[in-house]
Amino acid sequence: MTQETQRTTLPIVQMAKDNDEFRQVIWTGEQSQLVLMAIPQGGEIGGEVHEGHDQLLYFVEGEGEATIGEVKVAVQAGDVSIVPSGVFHNFKNIGSGMLKLYTTYSPPEHAPGTEHVTKREADAE
């Protein structure tokens, strides 16, 4: 899928459920960015800190564990995790299928149109 530059309304939940790529940037504006993510069984996003970027993660399928700062909680479809700028975070898939979500960054974190099929590909970049 290519970046959605002309559309302002998207069926984002269905797009996230249909996505099998680790990371797929679908829209980037001056102040925010929309990204699809799919974490395979037993996989994780990887611990990180975004300085100067707030992040919201909206879960649409699967079961996971969110670590935000010192707090660990279970996440599932319908949950949103809030990661303020400068806070350590990681998200692990603890379910039996894919953990699927969409996330927003404010301001944008990745180059427009970024696609990573796997975490290994994302880490290499």
User: How many beta-strand elements?
Assistant: 9
Helicity level, as a percent range? Answer: 10-25%
Q: Give me the CATH superfamily.
A: Jelly Rolls
Q: What is the gyration radius calculated from CA atoms?
A: 13 Å
- Please state the second-level CATH architecture: Sandwich
What is the fold-level CATH name, i.e. the topology?
Jelly Rolls
What coarse outline follows from CA principal-axis ratios? Answer: globular
Within the largest sheet, what's the order of strands?
6-3-8-2-1-9
Average predicted local confidence, pLDDT: 87
InterPro entries: Cupin_2, Flavonoid_dioxygenase-like, RmlC-like_jellyroll, RmlC_Cupin_sf
Protein name: Cupin domain-containing protein
Pfam families: Cupin_2
Organism: Halomonas saccharevitans
Task: Describe the protein in words.
It holds the Pfam family Cupin_2. Residues 36-104 form the Cupin type-2 domain. This is Cupin domain-containing protein. InterPro entries: Cupin_2, Flavonoid_dioxygenase-like, RmlC-like_jellyroll, RmlC_Cupin_sf. With 125 residues, the chain is mainly beta. It has one domain: Jelly Rolls. It has 2 helices and 9 strands; from the N terminus they run αβββββββββα. The protein has helices at 12-18, 119-124, and strands spanning 23-28, 33-39, 54-61, 63-68, 71-76, 80-83, 89-93, 99-106, 115-116. A 6-stranded antiparallel sheet has the order 6-3-8-2-1-9. The protein has a 3-stranded antiparallel sheet with strand order 5-4-7, with no helix packed on it. Strand 4 and strand 5 form a beta hairpin. The longest helix is centred in the N-terminal third of the chain and has 7 residues, at 12-18. The chain is globular. The relative contact order is 0.29. The mean pLDDT is 87.
